[in-house]
């Protein structure tokens, strides 16, 4: 049951907590395969997105017994992350005013071996054409390495490119691999791309962010809503759509996703059967 469903979560758009929860209930069949087993960090907004939100990882106390959790070690202790393996868990997360769900690149019970490698293309300014070009450059580079990759909008300023893995490599190896690919990509187009994390050092270039691949690092889950005006969704898209310039980072929204998935289905479905090795790369 959703408490205070009338609460305005996106005031500019009139989107309530009830509508947010209804979205997550409807998208569950598409979203859950990408969430199962992954530790979740909630991005919560008790007063809607017009007020400051906060991130929450730990759900050790004060949460329902039926909610699945995974205990992960950290320096000096551990953290009990929620895990969403069913629609009821998604509904519960929405009831906590969790607009965005951020997930690990690995799944329980094997938390130390990622099953996905994620590249986050983050432009200094909104520039859909430039970030589309960078996404295609990265796709082509990964293709040269013999790797298939999938793409989704970030719901913010860029795109996320995902490489499914066979789960054999540990975080250190995946992180080194991602950084090496990012370095090679920047070497090919240093005037437009960079690995400098600080905005002051980017010089207006697009950041090829590979930092999503370390232990306990997270990325915005597929189909999650972002806490921005319009309620954009981090939604899977096709490479053809990117090439044709039909999608941008915030093309898809909460209110448009029902029609979107009805038209195209689950575009990341094929990832589950694609187990790729970076052992020789």
Question: Please, could you describe this protein's structure?
Answer:
By secondary structure, this protein is of the alpha+beta class. The chain is built from seven helices and 14 strands. The protein has helices spanning 17-35, 87-95, 128-144, 171-188, 199-202, 239-243, 257-264; strands at 8-10, 15-16, 40-44, 54-56, 69-74, 77-82, 98-103, 116-122, 150-153, 159-164, 193-194, 206-209, 219-220, 236-237. A six-stranded mixed sheet has the order 11-12-8-10-9-14. Helix 1 packs across helix 2 and helix 3 crosses helix 4. The longest helix is centred in the N-terminal third of the chain and has 19 residues, at 17-35. The model has no long low-confidence stretch (mean pLDDT 96).
Descriptive terms for the model:
281 residues; alpha+beta; six-stranded mixed sheet; four-stranded antiparallel sheet; 7 helices
Strand content: 15-25%
Largest sheet: 6 strands, mixed
Radius of gyration computed on alpha carbons? 18 Å
Question: Could you tell me how far the N terminus lies from the C terminus, measured between alpha carbons in angstroms?
Answer: 49 Å
Strand order of the largest sheet: 11-12-8-10-9-14
Q: What is the multimeric organization of the chains shown? A: single chain
Individual helix count: 7
Question: What share of the residues lie within helices?
Answer: 25-40%
């Amino acid at each position: 049951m959703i408490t205070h469903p009338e609460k305005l979560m996106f005031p500019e758009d009139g989107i309530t907590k009830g509508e947010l929860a209804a979205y997550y209930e409807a998208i569950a069949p598409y979203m859950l395969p990408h969430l199962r087993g992954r530790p979740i960090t909630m991005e919560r907004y008790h007063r809607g997105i017009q007020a400051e939100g906060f991130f929450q990882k730990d759900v050790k106390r004060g949460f329902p017994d039926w909610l699945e959790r995974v205990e992960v070690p950290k320096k000096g202790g551990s953290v009990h992350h929620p895990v969403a393996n069913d629609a009821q868990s998604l509904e519960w997360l929405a009831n906590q005013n969790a607009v965005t769900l951020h997930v690990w690149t690995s799944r329980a019970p094997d938390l130390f071996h990622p099953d996905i490698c994620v590249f986050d293309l983050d432009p200094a300014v909104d520039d859909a054409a430039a970030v589309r070009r960078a996404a295609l450059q990265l796709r082509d580079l990964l293709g040269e390495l013999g790797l298939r990759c999938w793409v989704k909008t970030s719901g913010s300023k860029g795109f996320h490119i995902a490489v499914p893995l066979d789960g054999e490599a540990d975080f250190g190896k995946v992180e080194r691999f991602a950084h090496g690919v990012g370095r090679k990509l920047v070497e090919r187009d240093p005037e437009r791309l960079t690995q400098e994390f600080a905005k002051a050092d980017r010089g207006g270039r697009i950041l090829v962010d590979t930092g999503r691949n370390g232990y306990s690092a997270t990325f915005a889950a597929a189909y999650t809503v972002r806490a921005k005006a319009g309620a954009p969704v981090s939604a899977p898209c096709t490479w053809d759509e990117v090439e044709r310039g039909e999608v941008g980072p915030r093309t898809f929204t909460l209110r448009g996703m029902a029609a979107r998935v009805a038209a195209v289905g689950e575009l990341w479905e094929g990832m589950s059967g694609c187990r790729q090795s970076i052992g020789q790369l």
